[in-house]
Amino acid sequence: MENLYHQIAGSNFMIAFAGADGILLDTITDQSFGDTAAASSIRPGTIWTEASCGTNALGTVAHTGTPLMVHGAEHFFAQHGALTCIAAPVFDAQGVLAGVLDASSDCRSRQQHTRALVSMAATQIESGLFRECHRSEVLIVLHSRPEYLHPQRWSSGR
Questions:
Q1: Where is the GAF domain (predicted)?
Q2: What DSSP string describes the chain?
Q3: Biggest alpha carbon distance in the chain?
Q4: What are phi and psi of 58, to 5 degrees?
Q5: Distances (CA, A) of 92 to 19, 38, 73, 125, 134
């Protein structure tokens, strides 16, 4: 979450992580976004399932397990109509949904690269879960681009 936040910090965003059950567990918020009325309803402990909030990125991704963007009036409740929310699923080492990573902002903020950044961050979390699950085993890591291989991080369990 922190890596994603630092990539988009200062651009009026909130990063959020919810469990597979749609309950918001943690957020990191730009001050500019945190001061908005919309941000006041996005806080740890709130429930974002489709059953309780209608169409929203966190709840819909928790339900479908696929990445999604919900923009403005696509939200079920009008109170969230000024937001754009981009979410991606996070799966554990066994392929079970572990949670949902989300980046939310007001609809006027630039969204050009956010989808890719959220998906990449979700993949990084999944890699960490996989490494943790298999930390007592020898892992062989292959990639066509060497800059994506970080043996020191893999072997230290980070």
A1: 19-127
A2: -HHHHHHHTTSSEEEEEEETTSBEEEEEE-HHHHTSHHHHT--TT-B--HHHH-S-HHHHHHHH-S-EEEEGGGSSSGGGTTEEEEEEEEE-TTS-EEEEEEEEEETTS--TTHHHHHHHHHHHHHHHHHHHHTTTS------SSGGG--HHHHHHT-
A3: 51
A4: -60, -50
A5: 12, 30, 32, 9, 12
Separation of alpha carbons 83 and 74, rounded Å: 9
Q: Hunting for tokens 């007592």 — which residue is that?
A: 136
The CB-based long-range contact list for 136-143 (8 Å cut-off, 24+ gap) reads: none
**Whole-structure pTM value:** 0.80
pLDDT of 151 above 60: no
- The pair of structure tokens assigned to 11 is 């651009």
Confidence tier at 152 by pLDDT (50, 70, 90): very low
CATH of domain 2-156: 3.30.450.40
Beta bridge mates, 89: 100
Q: Hey, how many other C-beta atoms are within 10 angstroms of the C-beta on 84?
A: 23
